[in-house]
Please model this.
Amino acid sequence: MPLLSPSILAADFACLLEEILKVEKAGADMLHIDVMDGHFVPNLSFGIPVIQSIVGKTSLPFDVHLMVDNPDAYVNELARLGVYNITVHAESCIHMDRLLNRIKSAGIKASVALNPSTPLTVLDYTLALCDMVLIMTVNPGFGGQKLIPYTLEKVRDLKVLKEKRGLEFLIQVDGGIDIQNVRKVIDAGADVIVAGTCVFKSENVEKTVYMLKGGV
Ligand code: DX5
Ligand code: ZN
Model:
């Protein structure tokens, strides 16, 4: 059974805490927090002050996805807030080895995200340092997009690579995942499902969470 990390990007920010407590109660495993800087991706979301405002108000671990030009600059503050995981994009990491080690030495899980067009080979030498690899199933920047089918091939390839190398990292997928396509995504090898629109715009969040976690 995969884990579910609902993305608060699709939540109603006017009542963010209520929205979070709703998915927590429905059985979510983590909380996916999309930080966008308007440079690395063509959209701006929120940053440290918003994350800080929800610290201590939910028991869900914070799964922070940094879509920013300079991920290095956020690590200290996120460590201070006690987040569970930090995912950085390979495309904006000049010193990926250094950054992953820095995150890990702060006692935080360290993960790498790949845009749809980025090959898995970028992780050839750092895969063993990753607690999780996030395969983007859409181009990052916006919620509510359609899943790009070839990204599932990438999930399958990553799963083969993981087994071949005997590694333990989790495979996370993010973007355009809904009740209709989640089975395909799980079958391809995803361990952690991120979903924004499908969860927060659902009329029956409990049922949606159950189904996204592989229930039928
Ligand atoms: C996209 C973000 C996603 C987004 C997913 O750049 O990384 O986490 O919120 O939203 P949906 O599930 O609506 O595609
Ligand atoms: Zn995300």
Notes: The chain has one domain: 3-212. Residues 7, 32, 34, 65, 174, 194 surround zinc ion (ligand 2) (CB under 6 Å).
